[in-house]
Structure formats: C-alpha cells, structure tokens
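FAQ: What does the model actually see?

It sees only this:
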Amino acid sequence: MSDYTPPVGQPNYNTGWGNHQSRETALKIDHIADKAKFGIEMLGTGLIGIDAIEKELMELSVAPQPPTQGQVRSLAHRLDAHQKQLQQGLDRLKQMMNDIDRETDTIQRPNSSW
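And it is asked to produce this:
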C-alpha cells in the first residue's frame, strides 16, 4: 500500500471521473440560459415599440393641431401589434420555462450508470 498524497493544489488521479457528465450538465445549463435570454429579448423588443408610441403620443399632445382620426387609428393598430408581440413573447417564455423545468429535472436525476 502506498502512502502517496498528491501535493496541495495538484489534481489527483480521480480528477477525470465524471468530467463528461459535468460537461454535459454545463452544456444543458448553457442551452437553458440561451432560451431564457431569447425570451427576454423578445419581450424587450416589444417594450421598445411601446416606448416609441409613448414618445409619439407625447409629441402629439403638444402639437398645435389635434391628431387626426387616421393618426389615432394608426397608433391604436401599432399599440395592438406590440401588445400581441408581448403576449406571444410571454407565451413563448412560459413554454421555455416548462422546457427548462423538464430539462433541470433530467439534470437533477441521479446518474446510476458507471
């Protein structure tokens, strides 16, 4: 029997065990983070559009002439489109959260194979 003790800070002979599983788990987590980031970006884009409409309404409120019926209708259609975009983004984010939950359940399941 050997009394070998690896020096502090040096990897020991067990270091390689489980590296494949750790790498696979890290890749799954990265994929999950990418999904969440995409959903957040979808929502952010919708909010930028609403912000533009808000600025246009502010300009119309101080204009010397009241807005025309066509301008108000156009703003309403644009606002509706952004509302739908946000709803689609939220629906997609909910679906991604379900996917994330399912994937993390898989990651958390103990690996019984050697």
